[in-house]
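Minutes, project check-in
Item: structure for the 853-residue chain
Input as provided by the requester:
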Amino acid sequence: MQKMASTNMQEYIPYVSLHNNTTFSLMDSLIEPKELFQRAKELNQPAVAVTDHGTLSGIYESYKASKETGVKLIVGVNFYFVNDVNNKDERLRHLILLAKNKIGYQHLLKLSKLGFDNRLVSSKKVYPRIDWALLKDNSSDLICTTACGAGIISQLLNKRDFEEAEKQSLQLKEIFGDNLFFEVQPNALNRNVNLYTDYVDQMFTNRQLKKLGEKLGIKLIVATDAHYVTPDQYESHDAMLAMGSGQPIFSGNRLKYNVNDFYIKSGNEVKAFFSRVWGEEFAQSLINNTLEIADMCEDPSWTNPVVASGKNNQLPRFPIEDEPDYEYFLAWKYDNPVENISDDALFYRYRSFKCLDAKIKKGDIPEEDRQECIKQMEEEFEVFEFRGFSSYMLIVADFLNWGRSQNISIGYGRGSVGGSLTAYVNDIHAAYPKKFGLIFARFLNKFKDAYPDIDSDISPKGRGAIHNYLARKYGADRIAHVSNVLTMKPKVYAKSITRTFDLAGDRKESVVLGQKLADLISADTKKVTDAFERSPLLNEYAEKYKPLKNHAKNLQNKKMAWATHAAGIVLSIDPLQDYFPLRIDKEGQIAVEFTKDDAEANSLVKIDTLGLSTLDIITETERIIKECGKEVPIINLNEYDEATYNLISDGRNNCVFQLGTSGGTIDLCRRVKPKSIYDLALINALARPSAKDIRNDFIATRNGDVAVNIPKHFMDRAFSSTYGFGLFEESLMFLAEDAAGWNLHQADNLRKLTKMKGKDQKKVDEWRQDFIGGMKKKHDYSQEDGEIFWEKHIASFGGYGFNASHAIMYSMVGYHTAYLKAHFPLEFLVANLKSEVASNAKIAADNIMKIKE
């Protein structure tokens, strides 16, 4: 029964539901955490438990929702339980554990990780499992309830194994004492056994639990086991269950709830149900027990790792004492005293000055740039030290240089780190910022909320070795991948719902129809409901196939599966298990149960080690060159190599990184006729679809057919190197500084704002007025002229501005491959063919496995 419009909160009986599933119970719940807490608030429930299946991954979102609504979060897990984890054939039962306090939460974290250590992989799904021994060792400060009809005791009762049910109840009581509760539910579910479900008769279970509880002195609590918000979502939830099992909606061999009772119920509904069965007084006692448990549980601020650990971030300190030049550092420190700076920050200064000298000696940086470089590095040190990220830079530089020492191919760099001079001298990337006009504030500044984000390209063959190196150096229990969560995007929904309901009449034809419907949805459509508005033809199909639209709102963007981010890893100063939920995937990789953004919001710093297959091709080419008795070339990026640039300009750049990926890019190479790395960066920026509208004008201007048009002198620094066009985001940052008098830190925020394309219009309007005000003050512009300038030069920037640092460094990789092709064409061809054969062999092997499955 849904809440009526005329009913106010005070008419709802206070009650706490201690068994609820959110969308983090993948493909088993429609309830987003914020919906759970908002609905609990509407129903006058002072607290609510989150007990997802075998995971703590929803706790962060749930705690945020708790703070927003004022409804207390009770942290729990619905564990998969077996008598002995060494028995792989034992059927899983459910057991709910709730944390009373920080100690209880740490036991939940430990049990969750131990569960994954003893995981069972079935039908491509991972089931973390715990048993009696693990439970006994990690039970303090936890409340135990016996879960649903598939629960630890209920399953035995439904099998009529009353003796074993009593025996195991006593085992639980021995472990948990008065913190053990039998769970009864306000529904009449009656379900037969199949491959996916146990036999359940909930009314029978309720009676038996009451009887057994009275015999053993174990209290009862009532829980609604919610899987959807309101009763009208029942059919969509059933469709989700069918999708999750890979079975059609009408299959009898899948998970199914046969009654429409697993929604978020009010205390009134719960009391009314049990009043009919056991009388009003006993029904109220069940509710009172839930309130009692809620009072036993603290507000879980300790789920926040910053609160629990007392550290603002979990970035480990770089172990400078283990470095071979540590004694030299101590001497340098004595000669260069700096107060109130940590030793790791001082060591980064020492290393950077040392490496600057090496770069100047090598000729990579002109001697006349020394003082300017020192000034720039001092500015960077100030930011790194203010943000506490000197160790981060040392960690990245260390594993990249270790990789090179092990002959692992490392890329030239990628992303905005190219603006950092200290990163350049420490060989984190290969772009001298001054030469290419790259900006440190684009990477990091004092006012930038985000952590530094260095993405490093590494040979796929060597990436595992680097991960192992980090594990040895910082501790295997202090490194993990981050997770990605796969959601039901519009195209996925169209194919899934078509198969689930066999909309074309049979499975095979429905697959074809599903693909046809998915093809009607544009790739940039974010919501299924938007797809119907944007595609009239899809809307017509929806009129014929009713399920297509009926379930769109309820199912769109729901979480479907966890995936392990292959490149993203986190390092922690403390064992990750102490503060973070962990999982282990089918391949045995450990990951925090957070996406990148949530990991960073929870004090972890992500490091990306991306596998770039081009680096393996370069390595293989050089191996073949050496094997043929030839000298492996040393690539000088500063030289003009005529053969290389002629190859690119002639369009003979198939298999050349980035520059030979499409006919359009090859055509740009012919038209631009590059002569430098910077020219290659211009091509890479122009090749993106968002820059298609300015390509012809840009090339005509660059080639001298049209005069360069830079209207104002203060626009020279922003646009002179790009012929008057705002091709790079850095141009916008220079423009903000020179036109409006902003510093580059403010300018970086403007860059981010323009890329949002109006998503925060209030902020856009605020910054627009600030920018115009700056122009008035710096250049005596009128309001009207300032508005015209904004619209013409700023508002359009988010459309095609590109990261110059990334373009430069990826152009270096492109040049390297072009050089090899120009000078060693046969060797380069063989290396590419070997790579292609290996790739095709993997695809073939994967398909064979799918056929076998």
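Outcome recorded: Confidence is low (pLDDT under 50) at residues 1-7, 841-853.
No further action items on this chain.
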